[in-house]
Design goal:
α1 packs across α2. Helices cover 24% and strands 29% of the residues. The protein has one domain: 2-Layer Sandwich (Translation Initiation Factor IF3), CATH 3.30.110. It is built from 2 helices and 4 strands. It is globular and about 35 Å long. The chain has a 4-stranded mixed sheet, covered by helices on one side.
Length: 90
């Protein structure tokens, strides 16, 4: 399992962070699903990613498997394209 990131300050209170920058689909969803499985219902997972296709694939897969709801996607300030995907465990 990937280590949860503590480098960036969480933007949601009581959230868990997952850093999957450098990973590509389908691994982006696999790591996200594993992290979600460790959380209690209603908890927030902040996923740091840099693979554009994952912005569509992760939320679709989470919805299809009924494991998480997409709350928002934020652009992460960096020298390359990165995002923070906010998911709520169902």
């Amino acid at each position: 399992m990937l280590a949860m990131s503590s480098i960036d300050k969480p933007s949601y209170k009581e959230s868990t962070q997952l850093d999957i920058r450098g990973k590509v689909c389908p691994l982006t969803f696999v790591y996200t699903k594993l992290a979600l499985e460790e959380l209690e219902t209603g908890r927030i997972l902040e996923v740091f990613l840099d693979f554009p296709a994952a912005l569509k694939n992760i939320p679709e897969s989470c919805r299809r498997q009924n494991i998480a709801e997409l709350l928002e996607i934020k652009k992460h300030h960096s020298d390359k394209p990165e995002w923070i995907m906010i998911l709520k465990k169902l």
